[in-house]
Amino acid sequence: MALDINGEKSEVGSAVVKPKDWTLFMLRLSSLLATAAATIVMALNNQTKTLVVATVGSTPITATLTAKFQHNPAFVFFVIANGMASLHNLLMIALDFFRHKFNDKGLFLVMIPILDMLNVALASAGDGAAAFMAELGKNGNSHARWNKICDKFGTYCDHGGGALIASFIGLGLLLVVSVLSIIKLLANQKPTNYHVTLP
Amino acid sequence: MVKTKWLALLLVRFLAFAATLSAAIVMATSHQNASVFAVSFEAKYSQTPAFKYFVIANAIVSVYGFLVLFLPSKSLLWRLVVAFDLVFTLLLSSSISAALAIAYVGKKGNSYAGWLPICGQVPKYCDQVKGALVAGFIGVIIYMVLLLHSIHTVLDPLLLKKP
User: Fold this and answer.
1) pLDDT digits over A68-122, tens only?
2) A147 and B50 in contact by Cβ < 8 A?
3) CA separation for the pair A84, A199 (Å, rounded)
4) Which of A67, B5, B16, B121 could staple B142 via S-S, CB 3.0–4.6 A?
5) Are B110 and A72 in contact (CB under 8 A)?
6) CB contact under 8 A, A141 and B53
7) Type and span of the H or E element at A64
């Protein structure tokens, strides 16, 4: 049994060690679940509706309309952004388990908060675009003569709204994770480094 | 040497302030009247919630950028600046993304939803919105660089400074 920097014991020679920081691990896991749920729900968002357009004689002419997430570039970006955020969470959780194989100093230590922040920015951009596009679909825009589509495609709108809520929860958790990992950077420094000066 | 780096940082922060301020102002003054088939309609930024969010977000970040320019070099408040930089970069990126999404629908339309593009009827409004979006995008990029720079100097994660 060897002691590492924080004084916790780790088994030498085992493939997987327990994560050192349970709070961060649980937050990352919840964020992973939320963003993965958002990605999957939006990616499977699809509704087909058959409307009667006209009646010729006694046979009605029907038109089939579909609402898919690919029709809207903002939703495509939403799916991609949340997919990348959940991949990042998965990578970080896996890194937690295999931590003893890497050395905890220098560039490696600072890449984790930087990657966290980049993914938070990406996820927030995806959420922003999809939220406003969903608002446009729900209320329309009378000044630009854009009609709302939620009265015809109710299920599509409901699923989209659910994916948005899950994504916002995942974004909030990812923001907390990012702040905590930056604070961990401070904790790993020497304690005499209180006086902050700029170069 | 120290003074040069401090002045360079100040210049970059001033550029970021200028970018977000101009984005907010150009978007807020975008306005055009048009008449199509004797029906006159008016295009203004306040008709679209995404553009209103863009103006408000850029205004808040410009005020913050202006205040940070006056922070003395050796103050302990630079740690707070790191936190604020993170939050405001996220806000800016979310607002530019939302405004871009709505502007794309305005320019190209969305045939599946039956939404026609409006840039043909109000070209001056569209151009001004485009200019505001470009300025906002420059602001986001500069703020991302400033965030990484603040973390590097204030928190010193690579332990480059001797205590």
Assistant:
1) 888 889 999 999 999 999 999 999 998 888 777 776 666 777 788 889 989 999 9
2) no
3) 35
4) B16
5) yes
6) no
7) strand A59-68
